[in-house]
Every structure is written in C-alpha cells, then in structure tokens.
Write a structure and sequence with these properties.
The protein is α/β, with parallel strands linked by helices and about 500 residues long.
Length: about 500
C-alpha cells in the first residue's frame, strides 16, 4: 500500500502546506488520498463528524483530499496549556493533562494507537501522505519517537526531508540532518525537497547539487514561494507576530493575541474582506483607539489568559473602547471572559481557581471535564445560515443567554448579546466562514462584504498550490518512492 512521509528540518518549514498541496495534486489525478500526522502539537483544532478533535492542519489536508476529516488522520494531539504541560487528545478524545517530561518518557506507549490509525487509512486509500512534526534531527527526542523516524521505521514508510530556503542555511540544515541522524533513520530518507524559494531557481542549482553530493539523497525538486499559502489557515500562532495592518480600510478589527490563542483562523475570512482592516494586538501592545471591533479569541487556558489580559492593561483599553462606542466580540474562551466569573474547581485547564470576568455580560462559567465537541449549524436573527463547530470545556449560564447572538438548527439559542448590541459572544468557531452569514454580521455595523465562502477561497488556493507543485517537484519520482504506480 502506497505511503510517503514528508519530514522537515524544523518547525514552520512548510510541511503542512506541502502535504496539503500533494494531497490535492494526487486527488486531482483521480486517486483516493488520505492525510496522516501521527502526533501534532497545536491549539488550532477541528471537530470531526463523529465528534472528535484533530489538528486543524489535518482537517485542511482532508479537504485537499476531498474527504471528510476523521480522528484517524491525527490520532495523537497535544494542546499546550502552559510552558511545560499540555492536554493530551487520543483519537479525538481528551485523555488528561501531561507534563512535558512525563510525556517524553511515555509517548512510545502510543505507537500502537498511531499504527492502528495509519493502517485503517491505508486500507481505504490508494495513497497516504504523512506529515512529520518538528525535525528528525532533534536527536534528543528520538527515544520513543512516534512523530518522525520512530513512526517511519515502524510503519516502513519512506521519507522525504524538506528544507526551508527562505530561512537561509538550507544546505547546512539538510546536510546537518544527514550527519546527526542514526544510520538506520538516515536510510529511511529517499530524497529531499527545497521549499519557499524566491527568484530564479537556476541560481540554486549548484546548492542542490552540493546537497546531493554531501548526502547521497535524491533531489526531488524545489517549490517556489507559494503566495496562495497565505490564503490557507495557519497552524501555528507564530505567523500572527508578523501579521500587519492593511491600512486604509474603513472597518478596523483588533484581535487580542493571547499566549494560548486557539483556532485563530476563525478570523481569516474577515482579513480577506476588502473593507476590513484586521490586525492582532501583540503582548506589550495596546488596543488601537480607532478600532471599531475588538475580538477576544479562543484560548486553551481561559483563566491564565484572562490574567494575562489584565496584566497587559487590555481590560482598561476595552473599557475605554466601549466608552468611545466600540464593539466587542468574544469567541469560545473569549466569550467566557466577557462574563462575571470563571471557575475551574478541578484544574481542568491548569491550577484550580476562580477569577472575576470582565463583567460585560451577565454570565458565569464553570469549567468541567465533559468537553463539548460538535459541528454546529443554524441561523442568524437576520436569516442567513451559519456553519461552524464547538470545542470547549465548561458550561456557561446566566440571564444574558436570554438574548442569544445566534440560533442553532434545533431552535435553541447560542451565545449572548448585550441590550445595546455592542458586546456579544458565542462558543461557535468558524462563524465568519459562510459568505452570507459574514455579510449579515458586517451589515450590522454598516460594512459591506464580498460574500465569498471561505471554503471556496481555500479550495481555489489548494488547486493553485497543487498546480505549482506539479511543475516544481519530480512527481513520478515521489510516486515511485511511495510505491505508487501512476495511472496514464
């Protein structure tokens, strides 16, 4: 059964995008393709139809394959809650909170879980494209590894190693990986790819030849800088640090960048709107005085990020923003922060405790271990339908819920909106994805919309990336390495 693993010389070298692009490329050739990532670490998660959660990148890759996402596509997900601890999700279900050291000691126990999911995907597809995590050259993490070479060797999946030339030192990164890898791990690598090249590719011909000479690995191609990748949801919050304001647009949106921000791709559709200027407020920054809407996004650690909000002085900025007539939207954890109190008596998201909320909505939240994971659909009061998903711990109650922001398909209310309409919140992620729903929300604030569904933007970007990889990579050679016989 055909399979290929894309590993990288480090994090953020573009593995997720390349896997998505290759998934779409082979799907466009009529093959049944499935994505797979044995272990992911991300607070950007997606909800599957069966009510499990996986990394958002794997949901995107499933879309590239034109198939619904399943929990088998990402059987182990780590969702960081602190610098040393993370919530562990196994096959879509929360399995407790682990400290980093304990997880490193015991992660090997999950190898059979990972292999079982992989084999299920193999049984239903012509090709499985696997994404590694971080770098296999992090040899200090090799013992018990299930994310890179530990998986590749156990599943007997050939590897292609990717280097990011935009960072510089790509020759050193690839040759250095070759040097430090264990000989048996090194033998799994059948070739290398270069990613994110800008300019005339001929200028790096000598560099590619040098990598071949020093490693003996086959040169599988070099991808150009893929501008369409900017239209795909990002997996890591590191990209937000370089997200700037698109000056001159009439409606200004500021999103608070919490340390444990989650599912921030909720706001990609707003950033694409021609009349909307969206920017993230980084730690140490202030909420701009000319902001029209301030968004409190989802978070993996609500109490800790609420304390961070106050330490930044953003609670004072928010009060001033509302006095000026501004608007506030809270999503998921941000919605919880808008209420009167938040309690975590059992330490679900960190140390147990309770804190006053911002007091902007008459609500109280208690965090519990019965995690809500479900697709959600319904209607806005104006009539347009929305689609999204819920992924949260905790139950919220209070008089403010009598004035819901949304209505689910079953007729029940969701979220809350203040009497003056300027403070609102809900648990629904993906609220802005449908074009008609986004247009209706923006119309509340007298802002026009292009009305384009975000899924259509994403689908077009995937096709554009696939077309670029078709010419940039040696596709027959990649297919042969995977054990795939391409159809004429």
């Amino acid at each position: 059964m055909a399979a290929l693993m894309i590993q990288g010389c480090g994090s953020d070298v573009g593995k997720s995008v390349l896997v998505a692009g290759l998934c779409r490329l082979f799907a466009n050739r009529g093959l049944t393709v499935r994505p797979f990532k044995p272990q992911n670490m991300s607070n950007n998660a997606a909800v599957t139809a069966e009510g499990g959660e996986i990394g958002r990148a794997q949901a995107l890759q499933a879309l590239a394959c034109r198939t619904p996402p399943t929990v088998d596509m990402n059987p182990v997900l780590l969702k960081p809650q602190s610098d040393t601890g993370a919530q562990l999700v196994i096959r879509g279900r929360m399995a407790g909170t682990w400290q980093a050291r304990a997880y490193q000691d015991r992660k090997g126990e999950l190898l059979e879980v990972v292999l079982e999911s992989f084999r299920r995907l193999q049984a239903q597809s012509d090709l499985v494209i696997v994404e590694g995590a971080g770098s296999p050259a992090e040899t200090n993490l090799r013992a018990g590894d299930i994310a890179n070479m530990g998986f590749a060797r156990a599943a007997k999946v050939p590897v292609v190693l990717t280097g990011d030339i935009d960072r510089g030192h790509v020759i050193a990164a690839l040759v250095g990986a070759h040097t430090v890898l264990d000989p048996q791990d090194r033998a799994m690598i059948g070739g290398f790819l270069i990613n994110k090249f800008r300019g005339d590719p001929v200028l790096f011909d000598a560099g590619r030849a040098e990598i071949v000479r020093r490693t003996g690995w086959a040169d599988m191609g070099m991808a150009p800088w893929l501008a369409a990748a900017a239209r795909l949801p990002a997996e890591d919050a590191v990209v937000l640090q370089s997200a700037g304001r698109d000056q001159g647009r009439r409606f200004k949106v500021s999103v608070l960048m919490f340390p444990r921000i989650a599912n921030f791709d909720d706001f990609d559709p707003l950033a694409a709107e021609p009349q909307v200027e969206l920017a993230y407020v980084p730690p140490g920054g202030v909420i701009p005085g000319d902001a029209d809407l301030v968004i409190l996004p989802g978070t993996k650690s609500t109490l800790a990020d609420l304390a961070f909000l106050r330490a930044q002085g953003w609670d004072i900025d928010l009060a001033a923003h509302l006095r000026r007539g501004g608007r506030v939207l809270g999503v998921c954890g941000g919605f919880q922060m808008l209420g009167r109190t938040i309690a975590d008596p059992d330490g679900i998201e960190g140390p147990s405790g309770q804190a006053p909320g911002l007091g902007l909505l008459d609500l109280d939240t208690v965090l519990t271990d019965d995690k809500v994971l479900r697709p959600t659909a319904g209607q806005l009061p104006e009539g347009p339908a929305f689609e999204g998903y819920e992924i949260h711990v905790g139950r919220t109650a209070g008089p403010a819920l009598a004035r819901p922001l949304l209505h689910r398909a079953d007729g029940t209310g969701e979220g809350a909106i203040s009497a003056d309409g300027r403070v609102m919140g809900c648990y629904v992620h993906g609220l802005f994805g449908r074009g008609e729903a986004r247009a209706a929300l923006l119309a509340r604030w007298a802002v026009g919309s292009d009305g384009i569904d975000q899924s259509a933007r994403t689908d077009a970007a995937l096709d554009e990336i696939a077309a670029a990889l078709e010419t940039a990579f040696d596709i027959p050679r990649l297919a042969a390495l995977a054990g795939l016989e391409l159809r004429p």
